Amino acid sequence: MRYQPAADEVSTRPDDRYFEDYTPGATYEYDGITVTQDDIIDFATRFDPQSFHVDPAAAQHGPFGGLIASGWHTTAVMMRLLADNYLSTVASLGSPGVDELRWLAPVRPGDHLRLRVRTLDTRLSRSVSNRGIVRSLVELVNQDDLPVLRLTVVNLLSTRPNP
């Protein structure tokens, strides 16, 4: 699941990526993972023990007609793929938050999820001269190219150090 260059790749690898390397308007796609029934049940048993996440038999009669991943599990998958592929490992300063988190379709056992990210805008910080703010539209899409999760993330990044 580690860093995989995308077709329209950020110009540098995550271990040498700084604020200046994020281009507004650019879109990137990264391969992802296949979610298993065991993954769904394990996560939900610990963090979201609703019957349609933890009990395949009960889920058949539930509102989704079968077992589905917790939305928080889906979000955790997105975060792993984002951290492995899009975020800088040397310049990331965290995030003040996300906007408009939406779970658009259920994630079922066997779904293969990949990451799609569009850099919406970038700007230098007004208060700290050696950092910038990158806002990105993030989606997880399944094997049918159907978005299952969408959110806007805001990341703080260091600017490239002067030599």
How would you describe what is shown here?
The structure is a single chain. This protein has 163 residues and is of the alpha+beta class. The chain has four helices and five strands, in the order βααααββββ. It has helices at residues 37-47, 51-54, 56-60, 71-85; strands at 27-34, 97-103, 112-124, 131-141, 147-158. A five-stranded antiparallel beta sheet has the order 1-3-4-5-2. A hairpin with a 6-residue loop joins strand 3 and strand 4. It is elongated, with a radius of gyration of 17 Å. It starts with 26 loop residues before the first strand and ends in a 5-residue tail after the last strand.
Biggest beta sheet summary: 5 strands, antiparallel
Radius of gyration: 17 Å
Fraction of residues in β-strands = 25-35%
Structure class = alpha+beta
Count of alpha and pi helical runs: 4
Helix content: 10-25%
Assign an overall shape: elongated
Let me know the number of strands.
Answer: 5
Mean pLDDT: 93
Uncertain spans, ≥5 residues at pLDDT below 50? Answer: none
Q: Secondary-structure element sequence?
A: EHHHHEEEE
Biggest sheet strand line-up: 1-3-4-5-2
